[in-house]
Amino acid sequence: RQRWRAEGRALRKLPVHVGLVVTEEEPSYADMASLVVWCMAAGISYVSVYDHNGIFKRNNSRLMDEILKQQQELIGLDCSKYTVEFANQDKTGQVLNCQSTLKVLSPEDGKADIVKAAQNFCQLVAQQQRTHTDLDVNVLDNLLSSTNGFPDPDLVLKFGPVDSTLGFLPWHIRLTEIISLPSHLNISYEDFFSALHHYAACEQRWGK
């Protein structure tokens, strides 16, 4: 744990929010759990897990059990009390140990969430609580439920052969650095840290 934390601190910059996007057809709970735990150990504050079929979200308890197991095995945390936040569900916002917050997302948290936010804004205009001139980036951000309380991703690690993020938070990744890796299956810590090192070394021009 100390090694991973030290390596995270040694990077020139560390992402605040990392999205883990799987485009492969058969996601691995064990390998995804390893990635989440490595993010936690490195000191990353927010982690989003996404697959385009929504498998992780439908089976979130299985994913959480694997994360808990690996927390205990890899970084030795007392994980008897763990919580996790699931987007767009009536659950209390919850936080994993290691001061990292996790959201498990699916395609319904992307374009569908934007449509819902637009409908909510139109209702506010119809009720004269807003005017159409009030709509801006910050207002729309506040209306989106899938990332409530989450900053936009600084880094997305995309796993698999598909050259697309397949609907992962389309509104929020305008300025996100996206790094593609061949697969999340049997991924090593070295591959994960190499991606963080690549992110730390990149120069972001913010569209300039």
Q: What is this structure, in a nutshell?
A:
It is built from 7 helices and 6 strands; from the N terminus they run αβαβααββααββα.
User: What's the CATH topology label of the largest domain?
Assistant: Undecaprenyl pyrophosphate synthetase
Low-confidence stretches: 78-98
Considering DSSP H and I runs of 4 or more, what fraction of the residues is helical?
25-40%
Q: What is the CATH domain class of the largest domain?
A: Alpha Beta
Helix-strand sequence: HEHEHHEEHHEEH
Q: How is this fold's topology laid out?
A:
Elements: H1 2-10, E1 17-22, H2 29-42, E2 46-51, H3 55-58, H4 60-75, E3 85-86, E4 101-105, H5 111-126, H6 137-143, E5 155-159, E6 177-181, H7 189-201
Parallel strand pairs: 1-2, 1-5, 2-4, 3-4, 5-6
Helix pairs in contact: 2-4
Enzyme class: transferase
Catalytic activity: n isopentenyl diphosphate + (2E,6E)-farnesyl diphosphate = a di-trans,poly-cis-polyprenyl diphosphate + n diphosphate
Subcellular location: Endoplasmic reticulum membrane
